[in-house]
Amino acid sequence: MDQIINQMLKQYSSLTVYDKKNSIKEVVQEIMLCGLSRAGFFKTAAFYGGTALRIIYGLDRFSEDLDFSLKEPNSLFDFAEFMPTLEKEIRSYGLNFSIEEKVKSVESGIKSAFLKGNTKEHIIMFYADEQLAHSIGSKELIKVKLEVDTDPPDYATFETKYRLLPIPYEITLYDMPSLFAGKIHAVICRAWKNRVKGRDLYDYVFYLSRGAKVNLKHLLARLEQSGYITEKDQTTIEDVKRMLCKRFETIDYSQAKQDVKPFIRNFDALNVWNKDFFCEITEDLEEND
To answer: Could you report the per-residue pLDDT of 143-162, keeping only the tens digit for each?
Structure first.
């Protein structure tokens, strides 16, 4: 196995099959970020979402996807121009992954692509565990989804961070208040359909536990883009708190807990989850100056 990958892998506690699959995904995610940086992707785009929160700020849960936003709207953005460089970067570490853009039947502002590699092959490569590999289906795939918002709401603010592995590289991402705005928008507006996104609630608690403040202007731009409010509403931080509490009153917390459990280790953190808990901690929500 590549020496750098072995070094990266030591950061993870991989006790179960599930842990090992996630560790491979997390290593691959960081190599992808490095490849995108080397391809010049972050000149026009920024990293955000749960994986950004985990990699940069230490969120203690696994996050599956890599989410990005253009810094300025651009309907002509073409993900394909970055794919050859990204795939070359992945393969330079001896990994056998391919990347392909997802063709959507309905046009939207979100461009998606998937990186795919054979699970059995990479379990053997990363862990040299033939016995474990025999328990995995020959066609099972490790998948990492990339999404780019080509029509981002206004007023996000950005920062630059540096990572040392697999090699030193530079990354542009939403700053903490703007990341928090995106998460609050998800808590209020995400179409949960048949299951609750307990991960959104978990991340919401993480932000507040770190004393994060919200980029209110960016949050309101997101809520306006979703049709949840209008520009005429003149929404304040107190209005946002009321929106959140209204949302917290409708949640099935048993379902929310089940959603997030596969992504965390300490289930005890979920014991206090109920509407009273979330409404009370929301009183501490503040906007960024």
So the answer is: 999 999 999 999 999 999 99
Minimal CA–CA distance to 98: which of 37, 144, 140?
Answer: 144
71: Cβ–Cβ under 8 A, 6 or more apart, which residues? 44, 45, 46, 152, 156, 158, 172
pLDDT tens digits for 92-109?
999 999 999 887 767 788
Residue closest to 161 by CA, chosen among 238, 240, 52: 52
Segments of the chain assigned to CATH 3.10.450.620: 3-174
Let me know if 105 is exposed, middle or buried by CB neighbors in 10 A (0-12, 13-18, 19+): exposed
| Integer Cα distance of 149 and 185 in angstroms | 15
Structure tokens, 143: 């998948």
Residues 222/181, Cβ–Cβ less than 8 Å: yes
pTM of the model: 0.93
Q: Judging by DSSP bridges, how do beta strands 158-163 and 97-101 pair with one another?
A: unpaired
Tokens standing for 116? 């795919």
CA 76 to chain centre: 24
Residues 228, 172 contacting (CB under 8 angstroms): no
CATH class of 3-174: alpha beta
